[in-house]
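Entry 14. Structure prediction run on the chain below.
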Amino acid sequence: MGLDAVLFDMDGTLLDSEKLWDVALADLAAWLGGELSTAARDRMIGSSMGRSVAILHADLGVEADAESSACYLTDRMAELLATDLVWRPGAEELLDAVAESGVPAALVTSTHRRLTDIALATIGPEHFTVTVCGDEVDRPKPNPDPYLKAIRLLGADPGRSVVIEDSPLGVAAAEAAGCVVVAVPSEVPIEPAPTRTVWPTLVGRTVRDLVHLVEARG
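Output returned:
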């Protein structure tokens, strides 16, 4: 087939969960006595927990304990993820199609394992041969480490593996890992480039479309 693996980001790509992060981050900001700016929130899309907390503290101008903020944010997101998860358009259908094709799939997310496992109850862990979470690598996205780890665990060739991402940070990580990259923007725009293909939505997309991207890369 020419396609070794498909690697999916989670928040904003498979699940419309960035809106839940909006709620949790706003609540954290209020807990710290401030209000998060839109510009700072946009810079957090696809980011790690540590980086997001640091951005929030800087945006509010507070010197708060990073571990306490991360614990608050994790607990609030655990509540939200357990009650209100919605698929991104076309994501569930494409994930099912990849599973039916027999092509190995990985979930590669900046979200920590505790929260990812809650979301996996909706997504279905059986869809993935490998899952890599943000607290399971030394250098999270936008570094290539999460995708390189997943590729290694799958025994795949990055040049024959397609990453599907929604954020600039995630796209940067996938590109640095040498993968074929599909960007499906959710909360912030992503411009087309020679190193990526931009799709407005996953609706109607098939495994054959992914194969064609690998073949076009040569």
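The chain has a mean pLDDT of 96.
Filed with the rest of this week's runs.
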